Amino acid sequence: MPALKSGRMGTIESPINDSKGCGGVMRIAPVGLAYNDAEKAFQIGCGCTAITHGHPTGYLSSGTLAALISMIFSGESLPDTIDESIRVLNSVNHSGDSDSTGSITGNILGALYGVDILPESWIINLELKELIEETARYLFDQYR
Fold first, then answer.
1. Range of the domain at 140
2. Which of the 8 DSSP states describes residue 127?
3. In terms of domains, do 98 and 44 share one?
4. N or C, fewer C-beta in 10 Å, the chain?
5. Cα gap 92→126, rounded to integer Å
6. Are residues 80 and 67 in the same domain?
7. What confidence score (pLDDT) does residue 63 get?
């Protein structure tokens, strides 16, 4: 939030802070859905996160997740996508919060298996369920 309130936009080349927080990686999965090319998804993912998170571990983790999601939607297996993603080892070697880990895991499993893998009891009372489903359908139809 401080980065957004600053009125400036960070880039990889000109970061506005040294943030290595997890906010960027939590919001980046749609980039992987939008790009069939994992390298492009990685670059866009890094750039989008560098707007608010200037430390390499902040934006590299986002690029890696975007690439991973892209590869999954292109038909790659999870082990293959992880092996490929480990080339940017720094992106997976930083601490984070449990909500971030859950968000990332959910993005990966959602890309692999969709909503059908979730128990109905987890979904039935989900806040903004219809909006989430509508947005997910739109993104999938738009980019895949």
1. 114-144
2. T
3. yes
4. N
5. 30
6. yes
7. 93
Both tokens of 68, joined, read 């991973």
- End-to-end CA gap in the chain: 31
Residue recorded with tokens 């979904």: 123
Tell whether 118 and 55 lie within a shared domain. Answer: no
The tens digit of pLDDT for each residue in 8-62 reads 999 999 999 999 888 999 999 999 999 999 999 999 999 999 999 999 888 988 9
In the chain, the amino acid numbered 47 is G
How far CA 137 is from CA of 41, 116, 134, in Å, comes to 20, 14, 5
Give helix 56-73 / helix 98-113 axis angle, nearest 10°: 20
User: Vertex 118, ends 42 and 41: CA angle to 5°?
Assistant: 10
Structure tokens at 75: 């038909």
Spatial separation of the C-alpha atoms in residues 18 and 12, rounded to whole Å = 11
